[in-house]
Request: fold
Amino acid sequence: MSSDIDLERRLRSHLEAEHQAYEPPVLLASRIREAIRRGSLSARRQALMPQLAAAAGLIVLVALLSVGVAWIKNGGIGWPAGPAVTSPTAATYRVATSPEGVNYLMARVDGVLHGQVNPDGTACLWLGDGSDRMALMWPYGYKARGNPLSVYDQNGALIGVAGTHVSLGGGGGAPIEGRAVAVLGCSGFSRVWGVAPNWSAPPR
Amino acid sequence: MDTGTNSVPGDSWIDPYVQGVGNRAFQFAAAMLKDPDIAEEIVQEAFVRAWLSPRTPREMPGFERWLFRTIVNLVRDHQRRRLRWFGLLPRMSTPAPASSPATGDPGMTRALDRLSPREREAVYLRFFSDLAYVEVGATMGLRDSTARVLVHRAMDKLRLYLANSLIEEGKS
Reply:
């Protein structure tokens, strides 16, 4: 009990010394009033400026390094070789595909490839516009990737890029009277084209 | 409402508190931070916030609790920011506050430095600012019983640290 009292006495005596060491400045009250009048603390902001400037500098440096690394990874100042092709690590989307081992037709269709991605990880690709739109059902193992949306075969070879002209083998496309066809990732299509694999457009 | 920044604080409700609580608030902040310059900035900021906030209590002891609570939070923020900042530069030593006093009991200073921030706050509010446990609790956002436990735990630690330092001094 007496040790408790001794400790408290010693603590209070120490704190009393601190009290005396930290005498309030004579002009404290007027400086507080001045701060209230200004409604802000410019002095404090100025004191923080070096820290803020250093933090901003650090952020800019990191951003520049990131941009530089990305630029070098993408080939630096070299000219682009052909159409934009997405990185193999870009997001992959499931597309409508035919079952494995089916027989394909060998007709041909040309047009601008259109595509859209869906929140469920699927993508729809089609040819044509408006009521002439035709959903594409790709051969088994095909996938779509990246931005611009591009279609790759089962070996990773690029087949087509959305926004570019493509020629595709296969068949189908006849309108189904008043009925929408069920194609993975696509809705509202009444026509579908089953794309054939390993098909190259004959020379025109 | 009398909180516009264009009105003169000398005529307002806050002026008696600037006179009456300002010095104690400064001494508390300075003792917590060991840096009178930063303490003054923090006290000014606490008063500016009290003036600008529509929720500031305008009567005692509500105002004092509110002000000390704001100061405790600003001190915590400052210490956290300082630690973070100097943590980024591990090779630079943290500079000592410009005017930390060499007065008082060095053993007690070392023992107080070893308390956790919350325990230190509770001890300073209780014994430096002479607040009752209910005030300590209100300032720290705790129940008075929790504040009491915090202070008692801090006192136990101080007793242990001081006893150990006595033993170490005896050995050397």
